[in-house]
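User: I'm new to structure prediction. If I give you an amino acid sequence, what do you actually give back? Let's try with this one:
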Amino acid sequence: MPDLRFAYRFKECRKMKGYTQQQLSDITNLPVGYISKVEQGVTFPRFDKLVILMNGLGISADEVFCDVVEASMDHHSSKVMENLDGLPIEVRANILEVVEVMIRQYHDSQKKTEAERIDNTPKT
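Assistant: Good question. You get back a string of structure tokens that encode the predicted 3D arrangement of the chain. For your 124 residues, that looks like this:
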């Protein structure tokens, strides 16, 4: 069964581009029913059709595989930064502060876990 993360992301990309399934069908010469099945996760496009669909939307592979392929996190991070750039500076500062707090909390929890592991090591 196809990965639903891909199906969701593909549909999200189409909607963000402002296309209906019919418009994408017209651009790619692929049937509307086929596009619908891809978006529902019923089918996964073969490579040749995947390329046609991505070119039709004018998107990169990172945009549709960013939830699936771990290396695509770079793309996701750059998209977040692009979205931040469009916000007022006060809002950006608040969002970045929240992110920094979350990063510190993560590192603190990792240190605590490591300390607990060392404390639980049998003494000889």
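You can read the tokens as a compact description of the fold. Here is one thing that stands out. The CA atoms of residues 66 and 76 lie 6 Å apart.
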